[in-house]
């Protein structure tokens, strides 16, 4: 197993992918995670299977920069099979903060709207996010973690850049549903990629991305 500098390109890409995966699994309208720094990285070459990265890193909450957690993860990229999502195993040290109260407040606020929520350009061109849109952005952050995980390879590093458009979809059950068009930034190629995703959320059941698809570039206009 080869020790890598924590700032090494492939190591930082693998840590960013692990962060996206953790955000998808543990993110919510009250929580989102970004990579603060990589403490240690090693790469294992598994014959005929692929490259496995062993990582130790620190995440910080997108809402509270002082709120951090230590994580370890293993990320396996499958050799010659870029259609297959990487395998990610992770461990979070300690307990995550309880956000039930914030979740219920957001859920009740959306349920009580007279008209379905609709918004665009979050954050705006100055980087501002209205406070009432923070949970909508955090939900997109978590859902985009699923899209990033499913579409990542050893040579990519995606991050949510902006919500281009979001519209709430009326439902007859207890779930909230949102249709998003997001912009993903791919750091290696510097491409901005429009992506559509339909997201379900319920305080008791978490987040589910029911459909997602890459959009044509003219969706940027």
Topology, element by element:
Elements: E1 2-4, H1 9-26, E2 33-46, E3 50-61, E4 68-78, E5 87-92, H2 100-111, E6 118-122, H3 134-151, E7 158-169, E8 176-186, E9 191-202, E10 206-214
Antiparallel strand pairs: 1-2, 2-3, 3-4, 4-5, 6-7, 7-8, 8-9, 9-10
Account of the protein in words:
The structure is a single chain. The strands form 2 sheets. The chain has a 5-stranded antiparallel β-sheet with strand order 1-2-3-4-5. A hairpin with a 6-residue loop joins β7 and β8. The protein is built from 3 helices and 10 strands. With 221 residues, it is of the alpha+beta class. Belongs to the protease inhibitor I47 (latexin) family. One of its GO terms (molecular function) is metalloendopeptidase inhibitor activity. It is found in: Cytoplasm.
Which features characterize this protein?
221 residues; alpha+beta; Nuclear Transport Factor 2, Chain: A; five-stranded antiparallel sheet; 3 helices; 43% strand
């Amino acid at each position: 197993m080869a020790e890598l500098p924590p700032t090494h390109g492939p190591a930082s890409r693998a840590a960013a992918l692990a962060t996206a995966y953790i955000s998808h699994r543990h993110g919510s309208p009250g929580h989102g995670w970004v990579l603060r720094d990589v403490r240690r990285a090693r790469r294992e070459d598994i014959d005929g299977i692929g490259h496995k990265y062993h990582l130790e890193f620190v995440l910080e909450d997108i809402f509270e920069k002082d709120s951090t957690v230590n994580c370890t993860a293993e990320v396996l990229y499958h050799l010659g099979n870029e259609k297959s999502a990487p395998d990610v195993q992770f461990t979070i040290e300690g307990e995550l903060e309880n956000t039930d109260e914030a979740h219920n407040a957001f859920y009740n606020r959306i349920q009580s709207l007279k008209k379905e929520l609709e918004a665009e350009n979050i954050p705006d061109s100055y980087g501002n996010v209205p406070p009432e849109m923070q949970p909508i952005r955090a939900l997109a952050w978590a859902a985009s973690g699923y899209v990033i995980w499913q579409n990542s390879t050893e040579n990519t590093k995606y991050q949510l850049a902006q919500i281009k458009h979001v519209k709430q979809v009326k439902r007859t059950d207890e779930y909230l549903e949102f249709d998003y068009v997001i912009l993903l930034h791919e750091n290696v190629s510097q491409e901005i990629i429009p992506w559509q995703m339909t997201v379900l959320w319920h305080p008791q059941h978490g987040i589910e991305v029911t459909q997602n698809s890459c959009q044509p570039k003219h969706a940027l206009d």
